[in-house]
């Protein structure tokens, strides 16, 4: 039964000494706020074995994982990204400084991308794995695999002194060491016999090999130097140098090829612009010469000087912006023609000059970040599938960002068109101001300005063309390999640190589970809990050594007495507390909330303890549903309580001696139907009055309160009720309900007895039996 909130009830507790007269209200105490460290330490102490076992299991798991760890080896290469503007010596139209849009992050994304790593797999033949270690075979050379990317297969090799045996069982072939081994779609060379006698190789799918490279490849930027450390980790000491060198070399080649393509496109564009500009310049020179010959005019008027200078500047700026507009429109149209935006397309879009827009630059940085995150999720042994919700979310974000980037690029191009139109309007206003001048002077000024503008534009295009030619001649990409990996070195392992982490994790887990068990335990374990919850005095704690021992040899009946130290001492304490604190107590009901809490044993031992003090005591069995006192005393034929209540027998005929001086018994050897009705009758009240006049104490052993109404009925007509509570067994809610039930009928609850056969009180930190230690001195 769980704890329940009950309306406060009053139970009268009377006595001349310790409890003169008090009104006790029981209730569910609110949980204290904050952390009680004393309670936490107590919980740890009570569950120390549970914590130790949990810690031992966790430590064992950690030790097992450490024992199963395989040595890891790592190789490292160093590359450096070159600023193309610094290398050439001049900034061209489609250059983007390395500081914009986080180019290092973009380049690392390309390096770890599936395009570069796929070429590295094809170049080094990294699809050929050793099934014993599941790493690329380290004893093979010149590996060429022409199988389709989704094909795989198995090759069995047997090494002999003079060669290698390979092929299917029905068609075994031999090849000498150093000779190529050729199978369907696979070719490789074994130059020397390895340490093993036989091995099984597996040609894995191309995607599997790429995943293997992505899982072990790590890049780290060297702060302040522009260098990048590229490392690869594997369980095979020969695989890391081979893989990391192939990756950086392929990346350098891919980067150089992309750079050459960009330079070629820029050179072709500048050549076309130069041809157009030279044609316009020749036309302008011919027009100015013809005009001067026809009009005999060789100089413009001085008053046109200022307007001429302004107009030249406007036309130069307009022509430059038109050239930029054509370059950006061509690049934008090429990118929009693709189904999806590739990384190289977006880089060329940024390089076309659109990247100077802050909005475009910010969107490009976001796109690079999303692509990097997606690549990392698809890489490694724990890689997510493309259908994973997080990958699909990133695909959506990448598509949306690409669309926003293209929209921002279109807005930038539209803004450039508007600026060109504005310059056209400015040029028109300058011409309008000169419209009032003589026609010949205006025409001469116009022709002169047009010629100067075309000459200046031609000079600028030639300078850019020369710079591009120099860049094309010296172009080797933006990647410089500073150092290739020459060997792999083992990664130091720290098993003791892992074991320490396992130990701490076990202690934390065990402590947490111990606190959880303590929180979920609704049973009563200490006297303070009874007094705190019920506001009733706990009169004694019955220790573990109590059950059914002789005090001094066999009694007259030949049965064993329930009393003997140290258990007897606890009942003597109960007897003293009960008699001296409860003056005038003649009839006492001993009951409990539920079965199995030790109420009958408590009633027997308490009656014996009072009788051994020289008092006359009657132990009366009122549990008519399940009589149990005959287990403690020798059974004799005769009348019992049911005969007294049902057949009007005299109580003296039913009372028998117990074998303990001063203790008589009135048993109920037969079950009685509707026992509560007989116990609640006037005959029971009259019987108790007669017995109380003849005995110093009448103790009634009844049924549990929550099982039957017998104890409740008797509690209303006796002098007091003693409630037995068993540690680790009695539920708090159950004992609260029992007290509530007694309070409703006005029963006088004199106190409680904490029955502790499991020794739980000692585990909870209360030492309650000093007698054994004292008597042993």
Structural class: alpha+beta
Indicate the percent of residues in helices. 40-55%
Rg, alpha carbons: 51 Å
Q: In angstroms, what separates the terminal alpha carbons?
A: 45 Å
**Residues in β-strands, percent:** 15-25%
Q: Tell me the quaternary state.
A: single chain
- Biggest sheet strand line-up: 17-24-23-18-22-19-21-20
> Mean pLDDT, as a whole number?
76
Largest sheet, in brief, is: 8 strands, mixed
Name the overall outline: elongated
Please describe what this structure looks like.
With 777 residues, the protein is of the alpha+beta class. 50% of the residues lie in helices and 15% in strands. It contains 24 helices and 24 strands. The strands form five sheets. An eight-stranded mixed β-sheet has the order 17-24-23-18-22-19-21-20, sandwiched between helices. A six-stranded antiparallel β-sheet has the order 5-4-12-7-8-9, with no helix packed on it. It is elongated.
Key features of this structure:
single chain, 777 residues, alpha+beta, eight-stranded mixed beta sheet, six-stranded antiparallel beta sheet, 24 strands, 15% strand, elongated, disordered N terminus, disordered C terminus
SSE map:
Blueprint: E1 10-14, E2 21-25, H1 37-46, H2 48-67, E3 73-81, H3 84-88, H4 103-111, H5 114-124, E4 128-130, E5 135-136, E6 140-145, E7 153-159, E8 164-166, E9 173-175, E10 180-183, E11 186-190, E12 198-203, H6 206-216, E13 217-221, E14 227-234, H7 239-295, H8 305-337, H9 343-351, H10 358-378, H11 389-433, H12 439-474, E15 479-483, E16 489-490, H13 495-520, H14 527-534, E17 538-542, H15 567-581, E18 587-592, H16 599-611, E19 617-621, H17 641-646, H18 651-654, E20 656-657, E21 663-666, H19 675-679, H20 682-694, E22 697-701, H21 710-715, E23 720-726, H22 732-744, E24 749-755, H23 760-763, H24 771-775
Parallel strand pairs: 17-24, 18-22, 18-23, 19-21, 19-22, 23-24
Antiparallel strand pairs: 1-2, 3-14, 3-15, 3-16, 4-5, 4-12, 6-11, 7-8, 7-12, 8-9, 10-11, 13-14, 20-21
């Amino acid at each position: 039964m769980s704890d329940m909130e009950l309306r406060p009830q009053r139970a009268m507790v009377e006595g001349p000494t310790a409890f003169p007269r008090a009104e006790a209200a029981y209730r569910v105490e609110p949980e204290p706020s904050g952390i009680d460290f004393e309670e936490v330490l107590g919980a740890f102490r009570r569950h120390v074995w549970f914590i130790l076992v949990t810690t031992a299991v966790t430590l064992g798991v950690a030790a097992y994982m450490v024992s199963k760890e395989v040595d890891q080896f790592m190789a490292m290469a160093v590359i450096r990204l070159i600023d193309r503007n610094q290398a050439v010596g001049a900034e061209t139209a489609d250059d983007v400084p390395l500081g914009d849009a986080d180019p290092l992050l973009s380049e690392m994304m390309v390096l770890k991308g599936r395009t570069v790593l796929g070429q590295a797999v094809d170049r080094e033949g990294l699809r050929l794995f050793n099934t014993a270690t599941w790493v690329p075979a380290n004893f093979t050379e010149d590996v060429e695999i022409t199988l389709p990317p989704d094909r795989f297969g198995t090759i069995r090799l047997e090494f002999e002194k003079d060669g290698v045996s390979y092929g299917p069982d029905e068609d075994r072939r031999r090849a000498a060491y150093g000779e190529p081994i050729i199978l369907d779609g696979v070719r490789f060379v074994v130059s020397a016999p390895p340490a093993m006698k036989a091995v099984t190789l597996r040609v894995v799918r191309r995607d599997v090999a790429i995943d293997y490279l992505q899982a072990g490849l790590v890049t780290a930027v060297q702060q302040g130097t522009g260098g990048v450390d590229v490392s690869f980790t594997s369980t095979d000491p020969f695989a890391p140098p081979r893989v990391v060198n192939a990756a950086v070399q392929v990346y350098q080649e891919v980067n150089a090829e992309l750079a050459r393509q960009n330079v070629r496109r820029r050179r072709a564009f500048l050549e076309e612009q130069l041809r157009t500009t030279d044609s316009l310049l020749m036309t302008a020179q011919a027009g100015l010469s013809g005009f001067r010959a026809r009009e005999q005019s060789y100089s413009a008027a001085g008053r046109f000087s200022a307007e001429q200078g302004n107009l030249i500047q406007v036309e130069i700026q307009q022509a430059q912006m038109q050239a930029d507009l054509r370059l950006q429109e061509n690049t934008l149209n090429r990118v929009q023609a693709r189904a999806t935006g590739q990384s190289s397309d977006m880089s060329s879009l940024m390089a076309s000059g659109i990247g100077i827009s802050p909005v475009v630059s910010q969107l490009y940085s976001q796109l690079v970040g999303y692509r990097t995150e997606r690549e990392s999720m698809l890489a490694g042994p724990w890689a997510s599938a493309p259908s994973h919700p997080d990958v699909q979310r990133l695909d959506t974000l990448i598509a949306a960002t690409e669309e926003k980037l293209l929209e921002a690029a279109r807005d930038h191009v539209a803004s450039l068109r508007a600026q060109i139109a504005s310059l056209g309007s400015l040029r028109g206003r300058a011409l309008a101001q000169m419209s009032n001048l003589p026609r010949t002077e205006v025409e001469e000024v116009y022709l002169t300005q047009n010629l100067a503008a075309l000459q200046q534009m031609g000079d600028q295009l030639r300078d850019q063309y020369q710079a591009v030619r120099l860049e094309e001649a010296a172009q080797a990409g933006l990647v410089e390999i500073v150092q290739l990996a020459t060997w792999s070195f083992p990664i130091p392992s720290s098993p003791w640190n892992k074991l320490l982490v396992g130990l701490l994790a076990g202690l934390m887990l065990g402590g947490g589970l111990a606190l959880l068990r303590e929180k979920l335990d609704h049973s009563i374990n200490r006297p303070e809990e009874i007094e705190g919850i019920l506001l009733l005095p706990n009169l004694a704690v019955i220790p573990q050594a109590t059950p059914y021992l002789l005090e001094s040899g066999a009694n007259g009946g030949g049965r064993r007495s329930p009393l003997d130290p140290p258990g007897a001492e606890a009942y003597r304490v109960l007897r003293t507390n009960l008699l001296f604190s409860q003056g005038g107590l003649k009839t006492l009901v001993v009951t409990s909330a539920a079965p199995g809490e030790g109420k009958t044993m408590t009633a027997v031992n308490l009656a014996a303890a009072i009788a051994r003090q020289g008092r006359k005591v009657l132990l009366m069995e009122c549990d008519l549903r399940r009589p149990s006192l005959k287990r403690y005393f020798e059974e004799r034929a005769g009348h019992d309580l049911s005969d007294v209540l049902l057949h009007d027998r005299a109580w003296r005929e039913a009372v028998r001696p117990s074998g303990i001086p001063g203790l008589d018994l009135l048993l109920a050897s037969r079950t009685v139907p509707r026992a509560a009705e007989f116990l609640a009758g006037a005959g029971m009240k009259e019987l108790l009055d007669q017995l109380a006049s003849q005995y110093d104490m009448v103790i009634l052993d009844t049924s549990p309160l929550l099982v039957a109404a017998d104890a409740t009925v008797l509690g209303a007509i006796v002098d007091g009720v003693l409630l037995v509570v068993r540690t680790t067994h009695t539920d708090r809610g159950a004992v609260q309900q029992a007290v509530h039930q007694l309070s409703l009928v006005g029963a006088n609850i004199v106190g409680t007895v904490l029955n502790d056969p499991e020794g739980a009180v000692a585990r909870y930190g209360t030492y309650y039996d000093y007698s054994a230690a004292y008597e042993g001195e």
